[in-house]
Automatic annotation (TrEMBL):
Species this protein is from: Mediterraneibacter butyricigenes
Annotated Gene Ontology cellular component terms: membrane
BP GO terms, sorted: carbohydrate metabolic process
Name of the protein in question: Deacetylase
Transmembrane segments: none
Length: 250
């Protein structure tokens, strides 16, 4: 009798766990009109924005960027490819030690929507395990290379434990138009508002030179700069058609 009671108890625990899981899913949706969306920005009354850097090539300015961020007392998010992690492991450790988010930018920077589900998982989890072994960090933020995604990419990322992240303010630093262009593009961007996610690249030619002015300009506008991990909602949210994450608890 005792044996059967334990079996029944175990079954109830499993069912209860499943119900909690299903209940959690019911409180979170990124599906809008049949499409799965990543997070482009966050609806918030707080005057906060997130600054992010994609690290897929080059490393000449990483330390300069870290020095400026430290000086300005700002924390950001770095999305790193597996190739970059392998080539610059000490910089990955330095980013983590400085208190910044470590984000996944895929293993080899391929167009994720052109890969099979299994290939997508491999692109995500290979660099995930590498960063975990190097720093102990279990990454949870994923930015698809080139901003390229479809429904399956978003679903695969979530299945691997990731929040898919895009941006609503593109610095265009990768076009190498110059320092002033980077500053003006960000500070005068039509989408810049509470909850914006700003895209930069650590390997772009003028980003490091523009960074201090960008940070001070954002602060002058009244914005607090936070890592993406501190900006997004983890549960009880839905998305609007523009990929803006909206809390259901307001």
């Amino acid at each position: 009798m005792k044996k059967y009671s334990l079996v029944i108890l175990a079954a109830l625990v499993v069912v209860a766990g499943s119900l909690r899981y299903l209940s959690s899913l019911a409180r979170v949706t990124a599906n809008v009109s049949g499409r799965e969306l990543p997070i482009y920005s966050v609806e918030t009354e707080e005057k906060k924005v997130a600054l992010s850097f994609d690290a897929a090539w080059g490393n000449e300015d990483t330390q300069k960027i870290l020095d400026i961020l430290k000086k300005e007392k700002v924390h950001v998010t770095f999305f790193m490819t597996g190739g970059w992690v392998s080539e610059y492991p000490e910089d990955v450790k330095a980013i983590k030690a400085a208190g910044h988010d470590l984000g996944n930018h895929s293993e080899t920077h391929k167009n994720m929507s052109q890969l099979s589900k299994e290939e997508q998982k491999e692109e995500l989890m290979k660099v995930h395990e590498e960063v975990k072994e190097l720093t102990g960090v279990e990454m949870e933020l994923f930015r698809p290379p080139y901003g390229d995604y479809d429904d399956q990419v978003i679903l695969t990322a979530k299945e691997c434990g990731y929040y898919p992240i895009q941006w609503d303010v593109d610095s265009l630093d990768w076009k190498n138009y110059g320092t002033d262009s980077v500053i003006q593009t960000i500070l005068e961007h039509k989408n810049l508002r509470n909850g914006s996610i700003i895209l930069c690249h650590n390997g772009a030619k003028y980003t490091a030179d523009a960074l201090e002015s960008v940070i001070r300009g954002l602060k002058e506008k009244g914005y607090e700069i936070v890592p993406i991990s501190e900006l997004i909602y983890r549960e009880n949210y839905h998305m609007d058609p523009a990929g803006r994450q909206i809390s259901d608890e307001r």
